[in-house]
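hi! just following up on the protien thing from before. the input was this:
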Amino acid sequence: MFKCLICGFNKLEMEPYGKEYPSGEVCSCCGFQFGEDDDKGISHEGWRESWIKKGCPFWYMPDFLENWNLEEQLRGIGITLEKNNEIKNICPVCEFDGLDEPAYNMLGYGSYDICSCCGFQFGLNDDPQKIKGIKKWRENWIMDGFEWHYKPNKPEDWSPFEQLSALVNQQYENHQ
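and the predicted 3d structure came back as:
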């Protein structure tokens, strides 16, 4: 087994850069494809930084290790994860701060990520009118009793009222 140069995952089947050419293997942990992503001009540091900002989602879940220790894995390649600098990706529907990636890119296109909390899929449930789709989904989610969409990710101390308070305060401030 070989170690990923981006995230330190030590379960690669091939050496990332062999003697003659890159392996073409995709890291199950960070999703970097050696010889493909770097040929597109993506640096290892740039990919790692982006992956960490997204919260280090495990790319290929069938290879996920039950005892996975992200901090230890990153330390193995000399990287220390500082959680206090972590960028949160907040759902514009329910204000959940645990999306795997931003809901919309810089051009406004949806990520197709599904919010674990409210179940909204960006780029699908908001079509054709983004703002109208978001408001309608939020309204239905609240009327249905704040049902948590993906049960395994539900925090034990979760409060929909605390979560939505930032949204309510923001709307109030915008109307003054």
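The CA atoms of residues 161 and 168 lie 10 Å apart.
Residues 169-176 have pLDDT under 50 and may be disordered.
cheers
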